Amino acid sequence: MTKQSSFKRAARERARVTGQRYTQARADLELANRQEFVHSRPFEQAAITAHLEEHYGIGISSIMPIDDDPATRPSDSWPGHYPSTLVVKHVDGQQWIARIFSSSADRVSRVQGDAEILQFLASHDFPAERIAHADPVTVLDGNGIVVTTFIDGGRPSAGSPEVWYELADLLGRLHTLPSAGGAVARDGGAEEHGGGFHVGRPKEDLAAAMSFLVSVEDDVTDAAPEKFEWLREQVETADDAEGLPEALTHGNYHPWAAVGTPGNLAIVGWAGSGRGPRLPALAWLLRTAAEHNTTQNVAAVMHGYSKHVQLTDEELHRLPSILNLRPLWLECLDFRMAVNDGGTRAMDEGWMQPASHEVAERLAAQAIAALSSPKSPAAWKPTR
Length: 384
Prior knowledge:
By secondary structure, the protein is an alpha+beta fold. 43% of the residues lie in helices and 12% in strands. It is built from twelve helices and nine strands. The chain has a five-stranded antiparallel sheet with strand order 1-2-3-5-4, with helices on both faces. A two-stranded antiparallel sheet has the order 6-9. The chain is globular and about 55 Å long.
């Protein structure tokens, strides 16, 4: 079978399962195949299906990446965004999420740790995805697979201050959970994309960012060296958040990590979780809040978080630099993607540019000022 005929067959199968027209299913498949991490964890869907059916004694009517089917695709997402997060539809109507860890760098022990952390969160009644079976982690061809229950409701709207307040309230609750051993004490807080090569504390984001740059160093064109050298300097001098207060934390905490309905949100995507500096998660939440209704949403985040956690003087002092930690990771990733596509990244565009430092200073000042501003009882809807 030729590559083209195989692609058409895959498009027809996608159309059959999702109910899309063939042309739309094909367009989605083409988009998915262009995504940065779509091939970072390769696996065979038929083998996964057979494995889960045999191990759990279930019948599966369909199994697809969560972004492939418009019925399950999170709002603002796109085909190929979460290629290894599968929606498992049972013939009896149940739905699970299966997360596949099939990169050469993925360790089964860390997948087992993910399940252990979810069980810890459940034991403390923290709103998070729940394991779907008493034996939540299985191994296929040396690769770990964890199953959790599917949560209805989709992603919350990022335009509502009430949602930002609830997210910050939950983050504060997470950061005040008691210490524990096992996986709860493992290093965590870094972004977990890219095949599991850089997992652990937030400083691993900087190691990943540098690897993005190094991987395309020989291909940087005459139009891009200035941005390349500037980004490399930013990574080398960035604040890695070490030495700041620590807690059990999430690796990618912002509205895309939440599902459900406002007032009853649950946090998902715990593969990057563990113990690490607590400030990067709050900083990333603030950074994403600032992209919307800045004044209200930033205040909502600070008021929600401060219900549980009082930031130290050192955290407040280093907040501007930590606000740029995740954006720097993203900009280095985007730079690599642009070079691989034959393009360039200008100094004054993207997640990180020279003006980003001034923006972070202003955002930090606004966030700190919000801590001393009056809290109107009507400003936020009550959460749990």
